[in-house]
Structure formats: C-alpha cells, structure tokens
Specification:
Heat Shock Protein 90, alpha+beta, single chain
Amino acid sequence: MMAHSITIQILNELDILAARMMARDIATAVGFGRTDQARIATAVNELARTILATSSGEIQLRAIARNGRTGLEILSKDDGCGTSNIGSVLQTSYHPAHERNTGLPCIQRLMDECEIAGQHGSGTLIICRKWRTLNPYAEPA
C-alpha cells in the first residue's frame, strides 16, 4: 500500500507533472471519485505552476481525517520573496507570472478550503483541503 503523505520538490516542469500524478494517486487511495481526482490534480497543477513562476518550492500531499470525514490536504510552499498583500493575490486578475486569471482563484473554486499566508521576504504558504462527499450516489473512484 502506498504512503498517504508525500513531499515533491518543484524545480522544473517535470516536477509539476510528478506532483499532479501523485495527487491523483493519493486522491484515488483516499476514495475520491474521478471528478474530484481531476479537481485535486488541477489544483496541484496550478499551485506547482505558481511556485515555478515565482521561484522554486515544494508541495506536500497528505490524506487527512477530521470529524469523521476523510480528505486530502495540499501544502504549497514557495521559496520566493513572499507577499504582504494577500488581497491582491486572491483577485481574479492576479497571477504572479502573467497576471492572468489562473492560480489561486481557480484553486479556490476547485477545493473546499483554501488558506494563504505570506510575509514579504519569506515566501508564501498555501494550504488547501478537499473533503470526500458522503453522497451514496457519487461516482466510484
């Protein structure tokens, strides 16, 4: 059985692909359906691209359980200069590399929870969570 926690260093485009594949694998192991697997993989893709656009960093993926629910948590930490203006990062027009509508607004729509912390000069930490639905009619994994 594979571990339900992994850290992937994001240094180049291949690392983005590896992070996306590992996210899908862990999401499958946790029991997410195909649609949520795709949502999680897309969120990881956007987080990894944001890391690479600003510098380098890492993505940690881990299975989580809280209050009888299971899910997946994504921690994204970049080694960039950080930001003290979190509001501008969350605007739909902001992207660190191209200032387009990608990145965090997209991630927030895909995930159930999303937190961001940054301080100018020390990088940015983003924590996202996706919870399994308890719908008995949900699609199979």
